[in-house]
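Run log, item B.
One chain of 235 residues. Sequence copied directly from the ordering sheet:
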Amino acid sequence: MAVSLYGATTAPGSVSEMSTRFFEESADAAIQGYVDEPERANGDGIVLAHGAGSNCQAKLLMELSGALADHGFTVLRIDLPFRVARPSGPPRPGDAARDRQGLQRAAEVLRAKTGGSVFIGGHSYGGRQASMLAAEAPGVVDGLLLLSYPLHPPKKPLELRIKHFGEIGKPAFFAHGTRDPFGSIAEMKAALKLLRVKHELLAIEGAGHDLLVKKSASQPATAIADRFAAFTGNS
């Protein structure tokens, strides 16, 4: 197993001029991405994973990474193992367990780097896998940041993905658009009643599943980072 944090580079579309290319080679769960360093670190880190059709260079993750770095978080944006294996296309049914292994490895690497608390999360599929890891192995992380949690497939409200919610053992922060077809705000509030831990839901007015508000001067990433920082005591 090899872990590499390459020298500071200017990555295409990077949130800053000091994103560090990251690559961890594992036979079972290889991950890659970028470490975004804050100017003034608060000692805590966060791993962000992408959705099913995206990668670590997704607009939402990059904007949020910059906003979290402004609060002092060291952010590791990763491509999940399924994306490392295949540059396009959604994850396959058998990919989920390996993707959680990748998230766990990323959390371990980031904890060794920062020495503080480590949070994990991400957008849609990435956030769902992070929440499942927190239920399976709560000692791995200190909390969750879940963006557009895919509560159910669009137009299939009975196919809920919340069986593990009662087993999540760490604080969880959710950001969700009011126009998300994967779950309404009312549905999210009902689902979060299953949680036995500290949690918060931030509704992003007018946003869909991508959490990007079109034709608006508002900055959802900034609002999410501000509230998450307060939620974790880093405001």
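Observations after the first pass:
- The first helix runs from residue 59 to 70.
- The CA atoms of residues 180 and 208 lie 4 Å apart.
Flagged for discussion on Thursday.
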